[in-house]
Each structure stands twice: as C-alpha cells, then as structure tokens.
C-alpha cells in the first residue's frame, strides 16, 4: 500500500503537478478511443482478409464489410466526440476551477509575500464549492483584518501605556534618587548626630558631676553664710554697745569741757583779783610791796592756769570731734553691719533657693543624661533604619532603571509588531485609516515638491543657518520658505481632519523641520518658556525619536513617546522620495486614545 502511494505521489509530482495537467489527463480518454479505433480498423482488415480467403459470396462479403465500416466509423465518431468533449471539459473546468484558484493563489501569494493588500476580498467567480471556498477565505481575511486591526490598536495602547509608564517610572526614579540622596544625607546627619549625642551625653554627665560638686560647695557656702550672718549679728551687737560707750564718752567729755570752762572763768577772775591786788599794793607803797609780789605770782599762776585750760579745752574739743566722728562712724558701721546682715540674710535665702534649684537641676540633669542615653539608643536604631532605607532606595532606583529598560524594550517590541503588521493594508480600523490619510497627504505633497525641485529648488540643501536670538534654536535653508508655502495648508488640514490630531509636520533625513502647523509656527519672542510650545517650525529634531522618524523608509513607522512639552503622543511617519532618493518623512501626531475610539 505504501509503495503504491509513493508511486502515485511520484507520478503526480513528475507529471500532474498542476490542475491544468490533471485536467489534461482527460485527453487519455481520446487516446484510448484512438487506440480502440486503430484496433478496430486492424481487426476489420483481418476479418475482411479471412472472409476473402474463405471465398464467401460477394453479397455476403459486401454486407459484412459494410457492417464493419459502420462500426469503424462509429468508433471514429466516438473518438472525435470524446476529443471535443474532453477539450470542452478541460476548457470549462479551467474556467470554473483553475482560473478562480489561480486568482485566489495570486491574491494569497501577494499577502503571503508581506506586501499584500488585505483590504481586498477574493473574487467570487463561480457558484459552487469554489465560491464557498472564496467566501470562506474572505471571511477568514475579514477576521484577519479584524485581528490585525485589534493587534495594532492593542500595540498602540501598549506603546501609550509604556510611554506613560516610562514617564511615571522616570518620575519615580527621580523621586527614588532624591529619596536615596535624602536618606544618605539623613544617614550622614544621623551618624553625625550619634557622635554629637555621645558627646552631649558625655558633657551632660560631666555637667551633672560638676553640678553635684557645685551643689556640695553651695551647701558648704550656705553653712558658711549662716555662720557669717551670726558673726555679723554679733558684730552689730558689739557695735551698738560700742556706740553706747562712745555716746557716754561724748557726754563725759562735754562735762569735762564745762568744768574747764569753769576753771577758765575762775582763772580770769583770779587774774582780775590779782590785778586789783597789785593796784592796791602799789597804792600802799612799801607796805604793800610784799602783797604786790604775791599778787603778781597769783596773777602769773592765773595766766598759766588760763593757758593750761585753753590747751585742755582745745584737746577736749579735738577729742569731742573725734568722739563725735567715732560715734558717727560707729553709727554708720552699725547701719552697714545691719544692711550687710540683711544682704547676707537675703544671700542666704538666695543660696537656699539656689541650693534647691541646684538639687532640682542635678535631678533633671540626671534625667536628661538618662534620656540622652535612651535617645542615643533610639537614634542608633533610627540610623540603622535610615541606612536600610538608603540601601532600599538604591535598590528601588536600580529596579526602576531595570523597569525603565524593560518598558523601553516593551515599547520597542510593540513598534516592531506594528512594523510587521504595517506590511499589510487592512482597509479596516481607525489606525489604518489614519495611515491612509497620512499617505495620501504625503502623495499629494510629494507631487508638488517634486515639481518644486524640477524648478531648480534644492530640496536636499542641508546648509542649516541659525536664526539669531532664537531659543529653542531655529534654522533656515534655501528652500524652507517655499516649502512652508506649499505644505503648511495640507499639514493643517490633515491634523484637523484626524480625530485626536495634534500636529503634522515634515522633517528631512537629519530631522530638520521646514514646516509645521500654523498654530505652532509663531514668530519667536526669545523667551524659551513662551517659544517652546508655539515655535516648532524650522527646528532641528535630532533626538533619538526624531532621528528614527527622519530616517524611516518603510511604508510607515508608528511611534509613541513623551514630547519635550510633557505630553504623550503617538505619531505616524510616512517617507518622502524624490527621484528614488529618500528625503525625509511626514510626521502626523495624534492622541491614540481618541483616534482608536473612532
């Protein structure tokens, strides 16, 4: 059985490897009929020869020969009819089977080669199983279009979410980096705080010891102050007694002065009496001479007594002044002693309060020292946790970087899937419609720009001249003004005619943008914050996304990315070719969420 099957497959592969050859095998029936006719003619000749040899009557022989001729002619007619019938059947089946199958094959081969147009259905040329097959294939193609369109939409969503995730990851990575830096700073400050707290604890212990020592000294000083207060009280008492004695001395000195005054009066009277006696003695003459001598002596004694009493009076006055001064000073000293006693008593009270404060401070310092030790332990624990947070932050930052790389890879895979699916024209879905609109706009502009190039304008001029005072920087070329006049209206119309359309602009192979939408082609002011969103023509978009778009030479390129304005945008890039030379791309940006809901 296997040998027969192998033989059949070998014969089919060698001789009947197409439907036409298989249909042509029907001509074997004609060959068989021809062989039968040839055999019949040969048999007829043999029969006639044998009949002639048998010398049959001429009438019988003629009748048999006529019958044989009729049979031969019938076989010949059957052969010719078979030839006509087979020829018609081959032509008919080629028309009904081979032709639609060939067209279906060509259509499917075009799709299979990666450049097919899935927007077209297979032709329905018959009304039989082939029509059912073509209809089934069309339903399959419709399903494929739906699936591919869904995959395209899904990959766009993936790209958008990847861009959004990349932005969030980038923000989170920045936050993680800041957190790591802050954690490192906190860790360093915490380490410094640990050292400082240890120093504070040591100093607090020292202060506590010093306070205890000062408390002991204050207690001793308080005791001494109490003793001083007692001594001052005794001194004050002694001074009071001394003041009393001085006052009594002053009184006695005043009494002595009164006595001296009395003696002076007596001396003056004695002197007068002696003078009178001398006068009387002079009157008496010789008899009174002796009395005169006595009177002179008495007078001399009175004068001496007067001088002595004057000296005593002066000494007593001086003594009274000194006693009075002593009394006053004693009074002042006594007053000062009383004030000093009050001050010392107040100082003793203050010392007593200070000792209480010292005791309270000592207790509080001991509590503070204890709390500082506890705080040091807690801070050490915090420092360990901050160190762990710092390590975790670094780990998070590394994971964020890995996530960003994975997200970029995912976005790249989505774009590769889009590039793979982009080989097929679907004629179905909002995205394919957007690609078609962008391609038609490109085709119209390509015709106009080719005419501009034939006029002598060098569209491949890459001598970019900086426009002074622009930020972001803008450039001009020999063709930029004419280019903008031709293309800006079409770019505006394409953006406005696309659901979710944001921007349409054209870049050359190096990313230079000679034309952009009119609403983002304002005159520059020199203020970057103002010009960045509204002065986007004549710019050089040489970032990786921009260069990839500028260098695209496929039917289209689909990209999703974060713009320099902070928004997420999806764009379709379709290339320009002039005289077979790649020039650049038309970039149509849109909000994928709005477009895909159309």
TrEMBL record:
<dbReference type="Pfam" id="PF00015">
    <property type="entry name" value="MCPsignal"/>
</dbReference>
<feature type="domain" description="HAMP">
    <location>
        <begin position="95"/>
        <end position="149"/>
    </location>
</feature>
<keyword id="KW-1133">Transmembrane helix</keyword>
<feature type="transmembrane region" description="Helical">
    <location>
        <begin position="70"/>
        <end position="93"/>
    </location>
</feature>
<dbReference type="GO" id="GO:0006935">
    <property type="term" value="P:chemotaxis"/>
</dbReference>
<dbReference type="Pfam" id="PF00672">
    <property type="entry name" value="HAMP"/>
</dbReference>
<keyword id="KW-0488">Methylation</keyword>
<dbReference type="GO" id="GO:0005886">
    <property type="term" value="C:plasma membrane"/>
</dbReference>
<keyword id="KW-0472">Membrane</keyword>
<protein>
    <submittedName>
        <fullName>Chemotaxis protein</fullName>
    </submittedName>
</protein>
<comment type="similarity">
    <text>Belongs to the methyl-accepting chemotaxis (MCP) protein family.</text>
</comment>
<keyword id="KW-0807">Transducer</keyword>
<feature type="transmembrane region" description="Helical">
    <location>
        <begin position="26"/>
        <end position="49"/>
    </location>
</feature>
<keyword id="KW-0812">Transmembrane</keyword>
<dbReference type="InterPro" id="IPR004089">
    <property type="entry name" value="MCPsignal_dom"/>
</dbReference>
<feature type="domain" description="Methyl-accepting transducer">
    <location>
        <begin position="154"/>
        <end position="418"/>
    </location>
</feature>
<keyword id="KW-1003">Cell membrane</keyword>
<dbReference type="GO" id="GO:0007165">
    <property type="term" value="P:signal transduction"/>
</dbReference>
<dbReference type="InterPro" id="IPR003660">
    <property type="entry name" value="HAMP_dom"/>
</dbReference>
């Amino acid at each position: 059985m296997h040998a027969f099957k192998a033989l059949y497959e070998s014969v089919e592969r060698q001789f009947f490897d197409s439907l036409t050859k298989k249909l042509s095998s029907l001509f074997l029936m004609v060959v068989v009929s021809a062989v039968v006719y040839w055999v019949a003619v040969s048999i007829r000749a043999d029969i006639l020869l044998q009949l002639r040899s048998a010398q049959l009557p001429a009438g019988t022989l003629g009748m048999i020969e006529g019958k044989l001729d009729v049979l031969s002619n019938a076989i010949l007619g059957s052969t010719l009819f078979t030839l006509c019938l087979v020829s018609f059947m081959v032509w008919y089946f080629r028309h009904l089977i081979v032709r639609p199958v060939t067209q279906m094959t060509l259509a499917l081969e075009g799709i299979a080669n990666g450049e097919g147009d899935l927007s077209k259905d297979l032709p329905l040329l018959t009304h039989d199983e082939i029509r059912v097959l073509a209809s089934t294939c069309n339903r399959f193609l419709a399903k494929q279009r739906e699936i591919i369109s869904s995959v395209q939409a899904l990959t766009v969503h993936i790209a958008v979410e990847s861009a959004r995730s990349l932005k969030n990851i980038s923000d989170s990575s920045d936050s993680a980096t800041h957190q790591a830096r802050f954690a490192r700073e906190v860790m360093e400050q915490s380490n410094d705080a640990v050292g400082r707290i240890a120093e504070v604890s040591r100093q607090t212990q020292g202060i506590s010891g010093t306070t205890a020592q000062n408390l002991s000294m204050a207690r001793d000083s308080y005791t001494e102050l109490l003793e001083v207060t007692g001594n001052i009280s005794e001194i004050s008492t002694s001074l009071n007694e001394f003041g009393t004695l001085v006052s009594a001395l002053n009184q006695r000195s005043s009494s002595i002065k009164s006595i001296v005054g009395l003696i002076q009066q007596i001396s003056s009277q004695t002197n007068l009496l002696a003078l009178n006696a001398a006068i009387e003695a002079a009157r008496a003459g010789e008899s009174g001479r002796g009395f005169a001598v006595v009177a002179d002596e008495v007078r001399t004694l009175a004068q001496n007594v007067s001088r002595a009493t004057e000296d005593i009076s002066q000494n007593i006055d001086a003594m009274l002044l000194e006693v009075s001064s002593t009394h006053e000073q004693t009074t002042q000293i006594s007053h000062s002693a009383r004030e000093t006693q009050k001050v010392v008593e107040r100082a003793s009270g203050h010392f007593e309060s200070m000792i209480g404060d010292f005791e309270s401070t000592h207790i509080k310092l001991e509590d503070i020292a204890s709390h500082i030790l506890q705080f040091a332990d807690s801070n050490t624990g915090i420092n360990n946790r901050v160190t762990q947070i710092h390590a975790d932050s670094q780990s998070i930052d590394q994971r964020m970087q890995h996530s960003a790389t994975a997200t970029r890879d995912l976005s790249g895979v989505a774009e590769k899937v889009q590039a793979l699916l982009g080989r097929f024209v679907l004629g179905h879905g909002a995205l394919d419609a957007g690609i078609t609109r962008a391609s038609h706009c490109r085709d119209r502009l390509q015709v106009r720009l080719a005419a501009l190039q034939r006029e002598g304008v060098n569209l491949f001029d890459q001598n970019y001249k900086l426009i002074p005072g622009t930020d972001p920087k803008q450039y001009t070329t020999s063709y930029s003004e004419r280019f903008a006049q031709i293309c800006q209206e079409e770019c505006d119309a394409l953006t406005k005619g696309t659901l979710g359309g944001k921007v349409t602009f054209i870049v050359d192979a190096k990313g230079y943008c000679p034309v952009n939408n009119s609403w983002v082609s304002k005159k520059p002011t020199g203020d970057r914050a103002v010009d960045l969103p509204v002065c986007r023509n004549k710019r050089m978009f040489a970032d990786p996304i921009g260069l990839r778009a500028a260098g695209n030479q496929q039917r289209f390129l689909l990209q999703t990315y974060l713009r320099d304005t902070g928004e997420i945008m999806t764009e379709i890039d379709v290339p320009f070719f002039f005289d077979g030379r790649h020039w650049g791309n038309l970039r149509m940006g849109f909000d994928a969420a709005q477009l895909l809901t159309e």
